[in-house]
Design brief:
The chain has twelve helices and twelve strands. By secondary structure, it is α/β, with parallel strands linked by helices. It folds into three domains: 43 residues, lambda repressor-like DNA-binding domains (434 Repressor (Amino-terminal Domain)); 126 residues, Rossmann fold (3-Layer(aba) Sandwich), CATH 3.40.50; 131 residues, Response regulator (Rossmann fold). Strands 2-1-3-4-5-11 form a six-stranded parallel sheet, with helices on both faces. Strands 7-6-8-9 form a four-stranded parallel sheet, with helices on both faces. A two-stranded antiparallel ribbon has the order 10-12. Helix 1 crosses helix 2, helix 6 packs parallel to helix 7 and helix 8 packs parallel to helix 9. The longest helix has 16 residues. The termini are far apart.
């Protein structure tokens, strides 16, 4: 008599795979009638399924499919704290369904994106969430007729691509307008060359606010820089070396703002008495900076949650009410800005 394994309740795909000594995708293939499983393995899995009375887990019941119960979330980097709440939001949405999240990173390289896309064509995952994918990656995945949702994007998206983004232009406009209202006229921006659409839009919001206020757009005050603290530092040193340096700096993101703070500290320039600073994203540490950083809040938890909810609908074969979801940013005034006429000695 075959030895019975202890399973307290009707088993999930993962438990069937564990008892059979095979991978979860292999069990999924058997459940879906795939032929690329050896007869002996198929027979063993089917015997276990019959023995324990397998029923599809909550995710499969909700989606109407007996697939792998896995969803891939692809981010540019796993060590960037910007992405943590996005991951958390997606995990919260999937938690109630029993789906498990598989994380991967591309390190901002198209080669790694393309290599990853090749691995999902065997249907070992039920769907994909892509954070900041390249246009080429989106085009390749679209040809596979595979459920996916984009969170942020590098360039222009066709209207039929399911995606979630933010009101980045409005955030950039609000941040710059706040500095203008404080009397600043020499307002610098860092990150004008970042290719992501959200970054392009916040830079456009900065430029529009200056134009509306009839403040000249000075090229010297518009600095390049990837979204890193080091580039924020380098750009700030260059700005403060100008014959007429800025009285305010709009950092393209909060990582930039760290570099701005460091450069101004080394130069003996007080924030906000001599230079006001605004960031973008509202990363967790910004409230702990000295002074607390004025910034633009990005609803990153909601980005992950909404994108995951959209993906669940697509996997279930349901139509989306809106393929493009835009979530609002929110300006957060803290302690790093002051009126332009406030000065103190270095």
């Amino acid at each position: 008599m075959a030895k019975r394994h202890k399973i307290d309740t009707r088993p999930t795909i993962a438990q069937i795979a564990s008892v059979a000594g095979v991978s979860i995708p292999t069990v999924s293939k058997v459940l879906n009638g795939r032929l690329d499983v050896s007869p002996a393995t198929r027979e063993r899995i089917e015997q276990i399924i019959e023995e324990y009375g397998f029923v599809r887990n909550r995710a499969a019941q909700a989606l109407g499919k007996g697939q792998s119960g896995l969803i891939d979330l692809i981010v540019p980097r796993l060590d960037d704290d910007y992405f943590f709440p996005i991951i958390q939001g997606a995990e919260l949405a999937f938690k109630e369904t029993g789906i498990r999240l598989v994380l991967s990173s591309t390190h901002y390289t198209e080669d790694e994106e393309f290599a990853w896309i090749e691995t999902v064509t065997d249907r070992s995952t039920d769907g994909v969430l892509l954070v900041l994918p390249s246009d080429e990656a989106i085009q390749r995945l679209s040809k596979q007729k595979f459920p996916f949702v984009v969170i942020h994007n590098q360039g222009g998206l066709p209207p039929n691509i399911p995606s979630v983004t933010i009101t980045s232009w409005e955030g950039g406009f609000a941040a710059t307008n706040h500095l203008i209202a404080l009397g600043h006229r020499r307002i610098a921006y860092i990150g004008k060359n970042v290719p992501a659409m959200d970054a392009i839009e916040r830079f456009a919001g900065y430029r529009t606010a200056l134009e509306v206020a009839s403040i000249p757009l000075e090229p010297d005050l518009q600095q390049e820089g990837k979204f890193t603290a080091n580039d924020g530092y380098r750009a700030t040193r260059a700005l403060m070396a100008l014959p007429s340096p800025p009285t305010a700096i709009f950092a393209g993101n909060d990582h930039h703002a760290i570099g701005v703070y460091r450069a101004l500290y080394e130069l003996g320039i007080a924030i906000p008495q001599q230079v006001s600073v605004i960031g973008f994203d509202n990363l967790a540490y910004t409230e702990l900076m000295n002074p607390a950083l004025t910034t633009v809040h990005v609803p990153r938890l909601e980005l992950g949650r909404v994108a995951a909810s959209m993906l669940l609908k697509l996997i279930a074969g349901e139509a989306l009410d809106m393929p493009l979801m835009t979530l609002p940013t929110r300006f957060l005034e803290r302690e790093s800005c002051a009126p332009a006429n406030i000065t103190c000695s270095a």
